[in-house]
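Pipeline run #58 for the internal structure catalog. This entry was flagged by the ingest filter as a single-chain record with no existing model, so it goes straight to prediction. Upstream metadata was stripped on purpose; only the residue string is passed forward. Reviewer on rotation: M.T. Logging verbosity set to normal.
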Amino acid sequence: MTKDERQVLAQAPITWRGDLLDDCSADWAGLLLRAEWMNKKRWWWCVYDMQDVNEVQIDSSNNYDKSCIGGAAARTNAENAARKYLVELGCVL
């Protein structure tokens, strides 16, 4: 996937699928965004670059000391990390 193709795909809204109260994901601009309820109020989130042969993990809540509370916050963090990554790749958003 080229930068131009990612740029076009990044214009589409991020659409989450699955159970937004438990485990959900979104495919967006060649990335996979995930959010999953772990325990009590704590959520895990992660972003993968599916265009990389190794499906490299771009960022996740594991990289931060602050707990992510609630599904909406987890999805927002994943979306922000995905956007930041595309900016770093040189894709204009």
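catalog note: The first helix runs from residue 3 to 9.
catalog note: Helices lie at 3-9, 71-88.
status: ready for reviewer M.T.
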